[in-house]
Amino acid sequence: MEIWVNPACSKCRSAVSLLDEAGAEYTVRRYLDEPPTAAELAEVLDRLGLEPWDIARTAEPVAKELGLKTWGREPADRDRWIEALVANPKLIQRPIITADDGTTVVGRTPEAVRSVLPENH
């Protein structure tokens, strides 16, 4: 299992605590220090069943600078969004947890985090 975290994020810290309490084995990826590649992000989006604009933090200052809220949200726009998220990882919603079985969630709630724990599969 891998969890993408920003250590300054309270939701990330809560998710890590829940994983620890459950005794889960996982790898922490500080995605601001080690941003995903476009291919990695596309794979995670496919696993989530979401589009890049669904996981974009549009209230971030860099999102406003880029004008993300005005960008198209059609299949043809997908690569542009992925490139923006990879270039500006702060825009990626967090934490993202990928379980060993491929199940992937945005772990912003305790329920979402628990849903990827092995005993729930």
UniProtKB/TrEMBL annotation:
KW Cytoplasm (keyword) present: no
Xref: CDD domains: ArsC_ArsC (cd03034)
Signal peptide extent: none
One Pfam entry name: ArsC
Xref: InterPro entries: Arsenate_reductase (IPR006659), Arsenate_reductase-like (IPR006660), Thioredoxin-like_sf (IPR036249)
Molecular function, one GO term: arsenate reductase (glutaredoxin) activity
Keywords: Oxidoreductase
Keyword Oxidoreductase found: yes
Highest taxon of source: Bacteria
Family the entry assigns: Belongs to the ArsC family.
UniProt-recorded name of the protein: Arsenate reductase
